[in-house]
Structures are given as structure tokens and as C-alpha cells.
Specification:
Largest sheet: 10 strands, mixed
Oligomer: single chain
Number of helices: 11
Helix content: 25-40%
Number of strands: 10
Number of domains: 1
CATH architecture: Alpha-Beta Barrel
Structural class: alpha/beta
Length: about 325
């Protein structure tokens, strides 16, 4: 992986539902079951079409984990013709491919069978490990048990799914916990070779949440974790920070080589108070590095053929049209 290149992708963010069985103490994304808790098919299809028209290459499907466990949700999802949120997601992934956007799904905990079900219609998938520590912030979140998350990341490796994971910093973990988390990710990648990027994400306090008054981590802490990640992780794994949550320009010298997905159309629904930077701002953040747009499936996985026949024509077409932009110092 070329250390002189900083990559990013252009996406649309589709939160298919905000209903979630977890109750993380730092989250403002989750909502109760209401009439408006599911993104309707017409809105989703309109967003996909507009994203393609604006030059996006990725459709990021995110939703609360196992919403069917929340009372009343099954009735709502059945009204739009689906038995589950995963079935609805599968249908929209097919629509995304037809529209010209590569799907990337982050659905929380899924079984190996569920991963296999979504794999043919996803160019990549993801699950933040967050931490290997058991924390008070996750006390009411069955999907945040570290062993459960590690098992899913391992299952994705067995299925040869190009995968995104990462750490969430500042939710009560220690530096030793962070090193342990990175070591687990490293060992999984050494065994399966499927981790394409690791996000080092700083916790941002949300007003109205139990952790709303907690301070985020310092720049020095963030830089230390990034340097540790770069030392521990194999060279072919990208280190990513979210440029709407952290000072990317200052953190790139610490070892960052990817700035994740930005959207010219949709907001960051998980961190709605933090708008995406535009491409010009990314260029300034990248200083004298080469800024290059990428797909949500990294080149090494394209070369290995880790994608379905259904995705192959779109991947090959999008690769040919990827622009490369050089920064000015």
C-alpha cells in the first residue's frame, strides 16, 4: 500500500431503520418503533438515483441491529412487503447495483448464514469491533459483547468478504484495551486476509445521551492509537479516520492513509451534528499527498476476485472511471 496516497470514497448513506435492540449509552441514532422509523422504498430509490447522478460509487446501508426484536417492528416491515430488515436490505442492494452504486452494508451482528445471504449483493461489509473490553456503556447492548463481534468478523473472513472494522475511542476503554483490540484485528486478518481498512474513530458526545457530558479523547491520544495501529497492523490494511469527526490534516502524519466515505448528498446520520467535508476540503487536509478516490472494495480484493458475478460488471465499469486527483501543498 502506497504511503504517499490518501484515499477516500463518495457515497450515499441510507439508514434503513433507526430501530435497534442495543441501547448504547453514547448513541443518538437509535429511536423507538414509530410510523416513520423505516426508510420507505421510494425514498431509498430516489436517494440511490440522485447519488449515482452526483458521481457516487457506494451505497452505505446502515440500520439498527436486529430491529425485529423490538415490539411492533415486524408489523411495520411487513407493510412494505418484507419479512425482515435484511430481506429489505437485500432488495435495495439489488436496486443499488442496477442504479450504478456498489452496496456496502453495516447491519450490526449477523450470523454466518445472514452474511452469506447478503454477500452476493455487497461489494464489502463492515462491523466496528469498537473494543474488546466489557464496558458500562454497553451494559444494555447484547450485540456489543466482544466475543460476539469477533465471531462475526471471523465468519466474514471465512466467507471471503472484504471487510471494514475499527475502534471507537473514548467510551471507557484503556490504552491496553486498544492494543488488545488491534491485536485481535491483526490476528484475524493474518488468518483470513479480509480486513481492508480499520477505522480509528473518536467518540463524540451526544447531548441527551447518558454519556453526553463526557469529554472526547485528546489529539495526542488519537495520534498514539493511530501510530500503534500502524505498527501492529499489516501494511495492506488501511488506517482510516472520519474527516467530519477528527482533524484529518493533523492526523495523517500519524499514519492515516484513508479518509473514508464522504457524501455530496446525504448527512452522517450517526453523527448528524458533524457535516461531511467537500472534496476541496479533503484536498487541503491531504497536504502534499496524492488524493485518490477509491471504491468500497479495495483494489487487492478486486484482483483476487472477491466479488459475485452480479457485481462484476459494475465493479469493472467503475474502476475504469475512477478519477485520480493530485493535491496542492
Amino acid at each position: 500500500m502506497n504511503r504517499n496516497v490518501i484515499t477516500f470514497s463518495k457515497n450515499v448513506f441510507l439508514p434503513l431503520t433507526t430501530v435497534c435492540r442495543n441501547r448504547c449509552e453514547y448513541c443518538c441514532f437509535r429511536t423507538p418503533v414509530t410510523e416513520h422509523c423505516i426508510m420507505q422504498p421510494g425514498e431509498a430509490e430516489y436517494t440511490l438515483a440522485r447519488g449515482a447522478a452526483k458521481g457516487c460509487t457506494e451505497a452505505l446501508f446502515t440500520f439498527g441491529e436486529r430491529p425485529e426484536e423490538e415490539q411492533g417492528f415486524k408489523a411495520l416491515i411487513s407493510r412494505i412487503g418484507y419479512d425482515s430488515i435484511l430481506q429489505y436490505c437485500h432488495a435495495l442492494c439489488e436496486q443499488s447495483i442496477a442504479t450504478g452504486l456498489l452496496p456496502h452494508t453495516n447491519a450490526g451482528i449477523m450470523t454466518a448464514e445472514e452474511l452469506e445471504y447478503l454477500k452476493p449483493v455487497n461489494a464489502s461489509m463492515g462491523l466496528m469491533l469498537e473494543t474488546t473490553a466489557e464496558l458500562p456503556a454497553h451494559r444494555n447492548s447484547p450485540g456489543k459483547v466482544p466475543e460476539v463481534r469477533i465471531e462475526m468478523i471471523e465468519n466474514a473472513g471465512t466467507l471471503k468478504i472484504p471487510f471494514t472494522t475499527g475502534l471507537l475511542l473514548g467510551i471507557g476503554e484503556t490504552m491496553q484495551d486498544r492494543e488488545e483490540s488491534l491485536t485481535v484485528i491483526r490476528n484475524l486478518h493474518k488468518r483470513y486476509g479480509h480486513i481492508q481498512e480499520v477505522i480509528i474513530q473518536n467518540f463524540c458526545p451526544k447531548p441527551g445521551t447518558p454519556m453526553g457530558n463526557r469529554r472526547g479523547i485528546s489529539f495526542d491520544e488519537m495520534c498514539t492509537v493511530i501510530r500503534t495501529a500502524r505498527d501492529l497492523l499489516p501494511e495492506d490494511v488501511a488506517i482510516q479516520v472520519a474527516p467530519n469527526l477528527a482533524d484529518a490534516a493533523s492526523l495523517i502524519p500519524c499514519g492515516v492513509n484513508d479518509l473514508g466515505g464522504i457524501s455530496p448528498l446525504t448527512i452522517d446520520y450517526v453523527n448528524p451534528e458533524h457535516p461531511w467535508p467537500g472534496e476541496d476540503a479533503l484536498r487541503r487536509s491531504a497536504w502534499d499527498y496524492l488524493l485518490a478516490e477509491r471504491l468500497c472494495i479495495y483494489p487487492q480484493f478486486i484482483e483476487r476476485g472477491w466479488f459475485s458475478n452480479e457485481l462484476e460488471p459494475l465493479i469493472k465499469r467503475l474502476v475504469k472511471h475512477l478519477p485520480v486527483q493530485e493535491t496542492s501543498s
